[in-house]
Amino acid sequence: xxxxxxxxxxxxxxxxxxxxxxxxxxxxxxxxxxxxxxxxxxxxxxxxxxxxxxxxxxxxxxxxxxxxxxxxxxxxxxxxxxxxxxxxxxxxxxxxxxxxxxxxxxxxxxxxxxxxxxxxxxxxxxxxxxxxxxxxxxxxxxxxxxxxxxxxxxxxxxxxxxxxxxxxxxxxxxxxxxxxxxxxxxxxxxxxxxxxxxxxxxxxxxxxxxxxxxxxxxxxxxxxxxxxxxxxxxxxxxxxxxxxxxxxxxxxxxxxxxxxxxxxxxxxxxxxxxxxxxx
Length: 279
What we know:
Elements: H1 2-15, H2 23-35, H3 39-52, H4 57-69, H5 73-86, H6 88-106, E1 120-125, H7 137-152, E2 158-161, H8 171-181, E3 189-192, H9 198-211, E4 216-221, H10 226-236, E5 240-245, H11 263-272
Parallel strand pairs: 1-2, 1-4, 2-3, 4-5
């Protein structure tokens, strides 16, 4: 019994914020905890940070977002109230983030193409290439799905997004080559070659969407990825009018996601929103 009590005290000490930690350290500890799914620890770190720096807008925004994940309406409301005093424009941004996550989490993946206006871009998200630069089967499935959407909307531009080069070729270049080999004119295709994550897919593709005069997008990705991608692009500023998923694994992805399954969506959302992972 003595050993058990000692273990509890030790664990509490490990998880508790350091009394001497600076706001920067507390912020970084909080972000590390959130990434690992240790939401309570992360929120405790933010509580300590905000005692020392109560007008820290990023910390308040982060607290509101993760309190929503933790279903702590009281902490979320308090954080938004304090944020409204120091950065009122950011409150609307946080609310947009939470709305985007909730909508995406509740929307099932769709394997069918949509009829699109010419100003709606088709965005195909990349997937890691093989070491020799060849396409993995999952990426081929995404491209086959994108081809169906492209033929259903022949006037829509196509954006292929993905960096992560293998054997001197990026995901975007490999995708563009495949689409051209399967009958898609090169004039329709815009390659985004820098993104190394879904967050960057959203941010960098949104820049291209704006630059080519498109006003919305349909996303094409895997069934287990479509909700996170939809939330990321929405938060980045793209109006996502549809999201088309590959057929593989789609049945298991049809039910709405519960909060625990949304961890990656919340983590991504804070990055797209511009809250730094570390200071």
